[in-house]
Amino acid sequence: MSKKIITEQEVNRIIEMAWEDRTPFEAIEIQFGLLEKEVITLMRKQLKESSFKMWRKRTNGRNTKHQKISGLLKGRFKCTRQKSITSNKISKR
User: Fold this and answer.
1) Residue 77, burial from CB neighbour count under 10 angstroms (0-12, 13-18, 19+)
2) Centroid of chain to Cα 11
3) pTM of the complete model
4) pLDDT digit string (tens) for 43-75?
5) b vs e for 41-66, b when ≥16 Cβ sit within 10 Å of the residue's Cβ?
């Protein structure tokens, strides 16, 4: 995992984003600086083994979790209210 210290609140948000079907790993990387491999490592440490296996099964090969193969427009994962709802660091563009 990267050397950046992540708060418990940020860990909770990363887990939430990782579970969301339409949030690509690239969105987590932009917001928190974690690569897909690092998100997987974090999920492995934070979830029960059965929950981790279920999550990996859901995300493995899912087009919407990988922006390059999803076919969605760039920025599709952002909501106009996202920052105000969850205190996300992504600014409105």
Assistant:
1) buried
2) 10
3) 0.66
4) 999 999 999 999 999 888 777 776 665 554 555
5) ebbeeebeeeeeeebeeebeeeebbe
